[in-house]
Amino acid sequence: MITIRDKVRFVETDMMGVVHHANYLRWFEMGRVAYLRACGITLGELMDAGVIFPITEVKAQYKNSCTFDDDFEVQVRMSAFNKAKMEFDYKVIRLRDGAVAVEGHTRNVFTDKEGHIIRLAPCWFDKIQKVYAADKAAEE
C-alpha cells in the first residue's frame, strides 16, 4: 500500500464548505502517480515511451466529508494488474478523527497514443509487478 498526505485547499470546497465530490477523484490520481513513483516509474517516462493509461472505470462511495484545511491521507492499493490493465482501490482518511471520507476504485487500460490497447513492455511491467507482488504478500 502506498499512502500520501495532503491538506484540503479552499478551492477544493463548495458553497457548503465541504470538499466538492470531484476532488476526491483528483486525489485518487495523486495516489496512482505516487504508486507508479514507488515502482520507479514516472508518468512522464511512460508517456514519452508512447504508453498512456486512460481510466475506463471509476467508483466512489462517499462516507464522511472533508472540509477546508483538513489533513487527509490517501491510501492506495493495486487490486489487479496484468500487461493490459491495472486497477486500484483507495481510501481517503480524514486525519483529525480517522474517519473514512471516501472509498473508491479505478481501472486503467494501457494504450498507445492512438488509443489502441497494448500490452505493457517488460521494462515497465516488471517494475510494477515487483511492487504489486510485495503488496499482495503483505496482505496475507
Low-confidence stretches: none
Give the N-terminus to C-terminus distance in angstroms.
Answer: 13 Å
What's the overall geometry?
globular
Q: Give me the secondary-structure category.
A: alpha+beta
The percentage of residues in β strands lies in: 25-35%
Number of helices: 3
| Arithmetic mean of pLDDT | 96
What's the β-strand tally? 5
Taking strands numbered 1, 2, ... along the chain, how are they ordered across the largest sheet?
A: 1-3-4-5-2
Cα radius of gyration in angstroms: 16 Å
Give the biggest beta sheet: 5 strands, antiparallel
In short:
The chain is α+β, with helices and mostly antiparallel strands and 140 residues long.
Write up this protein:
Strand 4 (85-94) and strand 5 (99-109) form a beta hairpin. This protein is 30% helix and 33% strand. It has a five-stranded antiparallel sheet. The chain contains three helices and five strands. It is of the alpha+beta class.
How are the SSEs ordered, and which strands pair?
Elements: E1 2-7, H1 21-38, H2 43-48, E2 55-62, E3 71-81, E4 85-94, E5 99-109, H3 122-139
Antiparallel strand pairs: 1-3, 2-5, 3-4, 4-5
